[in-house]
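ERR on first pass: missing label on line 2. Operator R.T. fixed the label and resubmitted. Corrected input:
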Amino acid sequence: MSFINIKNLIKKDLALLMHPTVFIFFALAACMLFIPSYPRPVGFFYILIGIMNIFTLDLQYKDHEASGLLPVKKRESVLSRLLTVVCLELAQLAVTIPFAFLAGGLHARIGEANPAGMNINITLYSICLLGYAAYNIIVIPGAYRGQFKIYVRSFVGMLAYSAISLGLENLVCRPQGGGLTLNGTGQAELLAQLPFLAGAAAVFIAVNLITFIIASRFYEGAEI
Amino acid sequence: MPKVLEARNIIKAFPGGFELKSVSLCVESGCITGFIGRNGAGKTTTLKVILGLSSRSGGEVKLFGRAMPEHEVECKKDIGVVFGGFEYYSAKKLKTVTAAFRRFYSNWNDKKYRELLSRFQLDEGKRIKELSAGMKVKYALALALSHDAKLLVLDEPTSGLDPVSRDEIMDIFRDFVSDGERSILFSTHITSDLDKCADHIVYIKDGEIVMSGDREQVTGAYRLVQGGLDALSPALKQALIGIKQTPFGFTGLIREDALHLADGLQTAKADIESIMIYTEKYEHAQS
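pass 2 clean. output:
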């Protein structure tokens, strides 16, 4: 595979298929961290709508046909799209980090834990990574299969994100679910959450690799 | 002349029953090859298989002597493809689309692109959806010609265009192949376009190539015969490929080598359109 082709395909996706609302979703997630009582993973959900827009614009603009005519391998097209999605998800997490510090400090000053769910900490980001991984493996291979049933798959992917993130959040909030450590915001607790983040990152990478393999196989046999 | 494109015995079956039955065609360097057939005859499917957009269950495709899809990337660098008009990225501006596409071609010639925009009177600030059908084809051609494509593959590029625009496109085609090193394969059901510029004709019917060769050869091999019903002998009726009967007489298509059966009858040169019509519409004359 050619690095230059993949870079060019990502640039093409960002220029031609990325809807500007993605930036609103970035800001929305950051702002929602300041809501005193709120299920935190919900703020990170909206970027999935932005990602769905990429695939719907792909359909509307016949991007899969236009890309099929470019001098690139089909696997490069799939990898670049996956990387575009992963970049947006990671960017969503990265953009909120400074706001997480600010919001976390603000909530601590008020002296209020989040009664609607978990606190803003490293575990929250780990859970979002797991939710994103589930969304990707459901949505991306489907986008390269047969009739591109992207709306249904996106809906199922969003449900999977919600189930995983809210399910894990619920677990984290219980003392018997490791809540005292995983839901903490103190320095020692945050350090203790790092292995969980490493594990979530490993799962995220592994699931995306599997996503790439499945999507590539679908696309190799697809009728464009 | 060297062959730019060679497709041999392409087989592809669809669940609905339609299939490409051992389709073979070739495009020679410096030539315009017209790929004709009715709607649904298999023209677009054949082109998609050749370009690797669609899989095949048998046969082989070589572009510039290299096998497809093994050398897909190298081959596609030298090809310009136009499917209909430019129906992609409708809400985007021309300059945005061009900026995204030019990166893929190391031999992109920006000066040539600017010249073509000026020649075709295309405004880069316009959105794709704001272009007329003819302008969309011209934009697609500008993109294809700016990366110095050696082969243009066009699927019904003139459908929906007015006669003046079609004639303009034909001029561009002739200009493109004039150096003898570049070629065009274009599918169409507007056969008058082929009369103007095609060197070779490939005719597909129900997924099968029924005619292929030099345009003059193909048209020269057939004649139109016209006469009264009393002149329609059983032997002549048998020899006619297609026949159209009215209460006043008949018109039929006959092979040049069977013309002796029509002695004394009025005959005329058959053009591509009449060959196609009589082969498709009135083909059951012999049954």
